[in-house]
Every structure is written in C-alpha cells, then in structure tokens.
C-alpha cells in the first residue's frame, strides 16, 4: 500500500509542477534581457484566428508558404521569443548621428509543418549548412546579418540572429536533453510563477541599464512612464468572459514602487478623462466597464496594474470615429470656404 501511495504522491507532485512550469518553447530559450510568449491554440479552437488567413502579399513569404506548405496564421501553435539587448557604453556618450545596434532575438516555434519540405526550402536558400548534435543549422543571409534556423524535431523549430551560433546551440542542447519543468533561463525561472494560469500572452523583461538610470516606457499619447533602474516587469493577458490584463513591476524597494504607483495614478487620471470623449453620454457599458476596471496598487516593493477589457471595447477603440449628427439627423458637413476673387492682371 505504501509504494502505491508514494507513487500517487509523486505523480500528483509532478503534475502540479508541470502545471506551474513555463511552456517548453520558453524553457528552451537562452539567457536574455526579456521574453515574450504567445499561445495561439485556444484562439484557433475558438475560431478567432486561422479560419480565413489573410491574403499573402510579400513575394518572399509567398514563396516560403508555397515551398513549405506552412502558413503562420493557420499552422503556428506556440511562439517564444528571447530579446537580447546590446550593451551600451558607460564611459562615453554616443557620437552624434550614431545608430545603436538593434536588439537580437532567439525564437522557438511549435506548430504543424512538413520537416522534409521545410528542410529542403532552407537548404536551398542557405548560404551554408552546419551540423550540431545531428541537427542541421541553416545559415541564412538577411539584412547584413546571419539568421540561423534549426529544425529540432517534429513541429519544433529554433531561430536566432545573434552574432554567433552559441544561442542556437543552447536551444538544441536543451531540446536534446528534454527540458525539465524547473528548467529554463534564470529570469524565467524566477518570475514565471507570477504569470496567471491560462495566460495566452505573457512577457517579462529586466529594465535596467549600465548608467543606473530609469528606463522610460512610451505610453499612448506620447507620455513616458519611468521605471526605476533594475525593475523587472511581468505582463500577461488571458481570456475568460473578457480579456484580463495584468502588469507587475518588481522594484528594488517600497519607495521605488511608490514612485512608480504615483506616476501610474497620474496617467490613469488622464486615461479616465478620455472616457468622457469616448463615451459622452455615459451609456456605453463596454467603455464604462473598461475604465472602471483600471486599478493600480502597491504591495511592498511591487506595483500592480490590472484591467478587464471587454471584447466590445476593443472593437470600439479600433473603429473609425463616429460621424457627428446635428438637427434633423443629417451628418454635419463643414461649409466650404468662399473663394476669394483673384486680382485682375494689369
């Protein structure tokens, strides 16, 4: 009896651990400054995406779909991204007109594709092909850099455009070793527990720089929200009856968290004032519910923003502005200016 109970307990513990583990595509990613994960399977099951993929216009993408049979809108299930931010010099200001290098990315994709057709396509367009642990790595020239692609297994592909092959080698190693539930890069292991269960989209990033200054985040309307140095931001969205959005900022001290909350409160006051312009009569329940749901709170060294976004609000937010109607119900038309008479030539 005891061995049976021990086995049952171990099975339950493993199941609970797996439930709170980050998805495997994210666990395979290398160490980075930020991560983003998207799960498209529930959206496809609900018929939100995939039924009618948009028409293809880019010639290169058309060729990719034709050669591989894979279309992202229809066949991609999960995608995980690692964001590698290039270091900034600390001993000198950047030269005038100098362009800072763009971030590099490592990605893991899981979906439905024909491995043989995909391998044939990448082999055809690759500048060179290397083999690492029995996985072919296709080196693709793209915009002055090398994009490395490796087909890890059935329906799983790794991509990276970092300077060297170290990142894609790391992802191949992780896949070969069967990533454990408690594995993954350090930032993910430490903060994934703050991602709510059932989140379809989530991301996290360490907001820091070499100068020790705060990191600005551009908000709608051109406002900057300044995060204290070495803040970790975790944001997520999941769908129940509405889109539940949550963002948590983990700061170094309660004082820093309070500064962030005070900034956010000021911005929320501005955003709530928009309700009057978007919902002048006060009768639109979706607009009213969204602005009423915006909340910012402090928990010691953590600032938390939550919001509930009704599906109807998204449709209204991205719809064209309504036509103003006056008098007997005809659209208001601005009168044309009366043309000035031109002076006669003498």
Which SSEs are present, and which pair or pack?
Layout: H1 2-19, H2 24-27, E1 34-39, H3 41-45, H4 59-68, H5 72-75, E2 76-84, E3 104-111, H6 115-125, E4 128-132, E5 135-142, E6 145-153, E7 156-160, H7 166-176, H8 186-191, E8 201-207, E9 215-219, E10 223-227, E11 231-239, E12 243-250, H9 254-278, H10 285-293, E13 295-299, E14 302-309, H11 311-318, E15 325-326, E16 330-331
Antiparallel strand pairs: 1-2, 1-8, 2-3, 3-7, 4-5, 5-6, 6-7, 8-11, 9-10, 11-12, 12-14, 13-14, 15-16
Low-confidence stretches: 8-18, 320-346
Strand content: 25-35%
**How do the helices and strands follow one another from N- to C-terminus?**
HHEHHHEEHEEEEHHEEEEEHHEEHEE
- Secondary-structure class: alpha+beta
> Share of helix among residues?
25-40%
Strand order of the largest sheet: 4-5-6-7-3-2-1-8-11-12-14-13
Please outline the major beta sheet: 12 strands, antiparallel
- In whole angstroms, the N-to-C terminal distance is 115 Å
What Rg do the Cα atoms give?
A: 26 Å
Mean pLDDT across all residues, rounded?
A: 81
Total number of helices: 11
Query: Tally of extended strands?
Result: 16
Shape category: globular
- List the domain count as a whole number: 2
């Amino acid at each position: 009896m005891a061995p049976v109970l021990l086995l049952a307990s171990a099975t339950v513990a493993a199941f609970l651990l797996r439930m709170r583990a980050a998805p495997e595509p994210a666990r395979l990613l290398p160490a980075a400054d930020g991560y983003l994960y998207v799960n498209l399977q529930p959206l496809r099951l609900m018929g939100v995406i995939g039924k009618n993929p948009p028409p293809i216009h880019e010639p290169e993408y058309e060729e990719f779909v034709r050669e591989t049979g894979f279309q992202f809108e229809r066949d991609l299930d999960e995608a995980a991204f690692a964001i590698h931010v290039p270091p900034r010099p600390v001993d000198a200001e950047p030269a005038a007109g100098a362009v800072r290098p763009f971030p590099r990315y490592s990605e893991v994709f899981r979906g439905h594709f024909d491995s043989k057709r995909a391998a044939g396509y990448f082999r055809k367009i690759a500048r060179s092909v290397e083999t690492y642990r029995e996985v072919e790595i296709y080196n693709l020239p793209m915009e002055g850099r090398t994009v490395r692609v490796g087909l890890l297994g059935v329906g799983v592909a790794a991509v990276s455009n970092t300077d060297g092959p170290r990142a894609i080698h790391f992802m191949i190693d992780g896949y070969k070793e069967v990533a454990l539930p408690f594995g993954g890069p350090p930032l993910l292991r430490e903060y994934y527990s703050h991602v709510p269960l059932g989140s379809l989209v989530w991301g996290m990033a360490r907001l820091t720089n070499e100068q020790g200054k705060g990191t600005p985040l551009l908000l709608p309307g051109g406002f900057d929200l300044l995060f204290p140095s070495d803040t970790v931001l975790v944001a997520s969205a999941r769908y129940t009856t509405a889109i539940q959005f949550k963002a948590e900022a983990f700061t170094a001290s309660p004082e820093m968290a309070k500064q962030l909350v005070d900034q956010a409160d000021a911005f929320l006051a501005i955003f709530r004032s928009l309700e009057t312009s978007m919902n002048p009569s006060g009768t639109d329940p979706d607009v009213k519910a969204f602005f009423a749901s915006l909340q910012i709170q402090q928990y010691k060294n953590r600032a938390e923003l939550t919001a509930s976004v009704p599906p109807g609000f998204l449709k209204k937010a991205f719809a064209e502005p309504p036509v103003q109607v006056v008098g007997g119900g005809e659209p208001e038309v601005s009168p044309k200016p009366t043309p000035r008479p031109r002076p006669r030539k003498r």
